[in-house]
Specification:
The structure holds two protein chains of two kinds.
Chain A lengths: L1 H32 L3 E3 L5 E3 L1 E7 L3 H18 L3 E7 L5 H10 L6 E5 L3 H6 L12 H6 L3 H5 L2 E2 L2 E2 L2 E6 L2 E5 H6 L9 H13 L14 H10 L19 H16 L13 H6 L5 E4 L2 H7 L11 E4 L13 E7 L6 H11 L2 H11 L2 E2 L2 H4 L2 H4 L4 H10 L9 H16 L5 H17 L1
Parallel strand pairs in A: 3-4, 3-5
Antiparallel strand pairs in A: 1-2, 5-12, 6-7, 8-12, 8-13, 9-10, 9-11
Helix pairs in contact in A: 2-14, 9-10, 18-19
Chain B lengths: L1 H33 L11 H5 L6 H8 L3 H32 L5 H10 L5 H14 L6 H25 L4 H8 L4 H12 L1 H16 L3 H6 L8 H7 L8 H27 L11
Classes of the chains: A alpha+beta, B mainly alpha.
Family (chain A): Belongs to the bacterial solute-binding protein 1 family.
Organism (chain A): Anaerobacillus arseniciselenatis
Protein name (chain A): ABC transporter substrate-binding protein
Chain lengths: 437, 279
């Protein structure tokens, strides 16, 4: 009797486990078979292969991707089904590394331009310059964003969208500082900032923080500073050159005079809050906030209270860093052929123009960047013009480490804990050490 | 005089407690109030927060859009099964460690504990490779394997100590009636360990309910994703709408709070074996 009960109990619990297993695999099965084959208009079944695409678009961008890009691609290439998976940013790099290690990557991924070289070095990406029709594609794309895919003699992706930073001014504060036009040179900017701070604003030169070089490079480069030699192989003698020291000294003197926004050392308010509420005269930023804030009914449209200008010219001109995303094919992709087909199509004029108009993302396709409707967006021409002189940050697999070390040193300088020259010397030596590894 | 000193200390103690409560609850209230605002892309200042009017708009948007309801149910299933699985298997192995004698028992237990010390980030790549070679990527089974496997260790460690405090003599009543180990485990150890089981249930549930990294690695399909991944989607690369993030987070912690309320009565209950044996 007791024995029977024991056995019964065991059986029941085993049954429960099996049921739960069955449930989960059923769910999985039903979702993975979805739409593998499609019945076309004539009632014939078309064999479709899936292209698995991890992207990192925001919400508004994802909508355009899903509602316009996907149907258009599948109409033109009925043999493929584009499967879109939106990945969150948190821990994304680690996710990709895990997937690469387990050979469970998607076919394609949209990634930040500074990652491409790093994953290429890991052997995770396909060198697309060896594929059919690469030269024709390359000719249609802007050169600077294209160069961010370059690593060790090959191209490990195509530029998908590009961006840079321009100067954004609070119109009211700029006028109060005695300027009717955005400052054209660094001296004018300094003058305007001084007047604005004297009149009670919280900052006249925007630097969002020191954690990423992206935030201060526009000033550093324009003032004549350099990171490396032209082929990105040496920091020593460039990052710590006299010109670089002078450039950084100028920025430091702004900070010490109180001209820079408090955000430089994590102070409040944030960039957009500061400029929206007449606290900051000037910030610099990429194009994304205009579309985010512009589409939010609860916040005033930035176009109503800002004016734009190029990064003011310094001794070296007006130079801003290139940002943006590349799209790459993984070595372990199951559908490399379809992936390359999509890459070629996605960087062609029509889809690039659709994304540009729908989201304000700046196309990498030269034809699409001239799209009249796209250029109608008020801030767009400034970004397109700024891109003409924009520079890529060093495309090297070690960039993350180099940047981290450099940023830390720079922050110590601005907190008064390190000598400026010493900081750059140390960062240059360390960077070259990373490169030679 | 004595009365006054007494009152003074009471006053000190109560004010410290009150300060503690305010300190702990303040961020939470800030979060709730922020979730009533519209379009807070930067964290709002105190005066904005204090003038917030209660509104459920953000909650409605979160729940109805962004697949949030779906993620919520997914997480329920994942965390629920993982909780029962790790409690059940963990208590069985705790029983074995507490009551059976077998060779290398202590060594085995130490090795067991050692796996607790390995940081998740180090373990994720090998774990993923194993799950992948089993063909369980993108299934809840793969996720449960990791969650339950990880949870069992903690549960075993915790329950073994608890089981060892239960008097062995209680088992005799069952042995006399002809019952075996299963009966002892089921009718004596489990009922007497309710406080410990309740505590472990909360740990096991909230541990997997919050878990982000493993879930994202194993689950590739958007429709199978769990709540923490859904939460992260509200944080953009360049800008996060904090009112939505907070509304979503508040919805996400509800089940944990409910579970806590259900099990909290079990926490302090002791003395269940009092008077069970004659001294």
């Amino acid at each position: 009797m007791k024995k029977q009960k024991q056995i019964l109990l065991l059986l029941v619990s085993m049954l429960l486990i099996f049921v739960s297993v069955a449930c989960s695999s059923k769910e999985e099965a039903s979702s993975s078979t979805n739409g593998d084959n499609q019945v076309d208009g004539n009632g014939e079944v078309v064999e479709r292969t899936v292209i698995d695409y991890w992207h990192t678009y925001g919400e508004q961008e994802e909508r355009v991707l899903y509602n316009e890009i996907k149907p258009l691609f599948e109409e033109e290439f009925p043999q493929y089904e584009l499967k879109l998976t939106r990945m969150p940013f948190e821990g994304l790099k680690q996710q990709v590394i895990t997937a690469v290690a387990g050979s469970a990557t998607p076919d394609l991924m949209r990634m930040d331009i500074v990652w491409t070289a790093e994953f290429a070095e890991m052997g995770a990406l396909v060198d697309v310059s060896t594929l059919d029709g690469f030269e024709e594609v390359k000719e249609q794309l802007f050169e600077a964003p294209m160069s961010t895919n370059f690593y060790d003699g090959g191209y490990y992706g195509l530029p998908l969208n590009t961006n840079t930073k321009i100067a954004v001014y609070n119109e009211k504060l700029l006028n109060e500082a005695g300027f009717t036009e955005p400052p054209a040179t660094m001296e004018e900017l300094e003058e305007a900032a001084r007047a604005s701070v004297a009149a009670g604003s919280m900052g006249g030169i925007g630097i969002l923080g020191l954690g990423q070089t992206w935030e201060w490079l526009p000033y550093f480069w324009s003032l004549g500073g350099t990171l490396t030699n032209d082929d990105f192989t040496q920091y020593e003698g460039y990052l710590n050159s006299e010109a670089s020291v002078n450039a950084l000294e100028t920025i430091l003197s702004w900070h010490e005079e109180g001209l820079v926004t408090p955000t430089i050392l994590n102070g409040q308010p944030g960039f957009w809050e500061g400029i929206e509420r007449d606290h900051y005269m000037m910030i610099n930023d990429g194009p994304w906030y205009f579309s985010i804030l512009g589409s939010d009914q609860a916040r005033p449209d930035p176009l109503d209270y800002t004016v734009f200008g190029l990064i003011p010219e310094g001794p070296a001109g007006s130079i801003s860093p290139i940002g943006g995303e590349n799209i790459s094919i993984f070595q372990s992709a199951k559908n490399k052929e379809g992936a390359w087909e999509f890459l070629k199509w996605m960087t062609s004029e029509e889809p690039q123009a659709i994304m540009a108009k729908g989201t304000g993302l700046i196309p990498t396709n030269m034809e699409a960047a001239q799209d009249a409707e796209f250029l109608q967006i008020p801030y767009v021409p400034y970004y397109v013009e700024q891109l003409q002189t924009a520079l890529p940050r060093t495309p090297t697999p070690k960039w993350s480490e180099i940047e981290e070390h450099l940023s830390l040193n720079i922050e110590m300088v601005f907190r008064g804990e390190m000598d400026l020259r010493e900081a750059l010397d140390d960062a240059a030596a360390k960077a070259d050490e990373y490169l030679s590894k | 005089m004595q009365q006054r000193v007494h009152f003074f200390w009471k006053f000190v103690v109560y004010s410290m407690l009150l300060i503690g409560v305010i300190l702990f609850i303040f961020p939470f209230i800030y979060m709730i109030l922020t979730s009533f605002l519209q379009g807070a892309y930067t964290l709002p200042r105190p005066h904005e927060v204090l003038s917030a009017k209660p509104s459920l708009d953000n909650y409605k948007e979160v729940w109805n859009n962004h697949n949030f309801a779906r993620y919520f149910m997914n997480s329920m299933l994942v965390a629920g099964v993982a909780m029962f699985g790790s409690l059940f298997i963990g208590s069985l192995s705790a029983y074995a460690f507490a009551r059976f004698e077998f060779p290398f028992k202590e060594l085995l237990f130490r090795i067991f504990l050692f796996t607790l010390m390995i940081p998740l980030v180090l373990a994720i790549v090998p774990q993923f490779t194993v799950i992948n070679s089993l063909g369980l990527v993108n299934t809840y089974l793969g996720l449960w394997l990791i969650y339950i496997g990880g949870g069992v260790v903690g549960t075993t460690f915790f329950l073994r100590g608890f089981f060892e405090t239960i008097p062995k003599d209680l088992e005799e009543s069952i042995i006399i009636d002809g019952g075996g180990n299963w009966r002892i485990y089921w009718n004596i150890y489990l009922p007497l360990s309710k406080p410990a089981l309740g505590t472990m249930a909360i740990f096991a549930f909230s541990g997997t309910w919050d878990e982000y990294f493993v879930a994202l690695s194993i689950i590739k399909e958007e429709s199978l994703r769990t709540l923490p991944i859904g939460l992260m989607m509200f944080q953009g690369q360049y800008a996060s709408n904090w009112s939505l993030v907070f509304a979503a987070s508040l919805i996400a912690i509800l089940p944990v709070i409910i579970l806590y309320i259900i099990f909290q009565k079990k926490f302090v209950q002791g003395g269940q074996t009092d008077g069970a044996l004659k001294g």
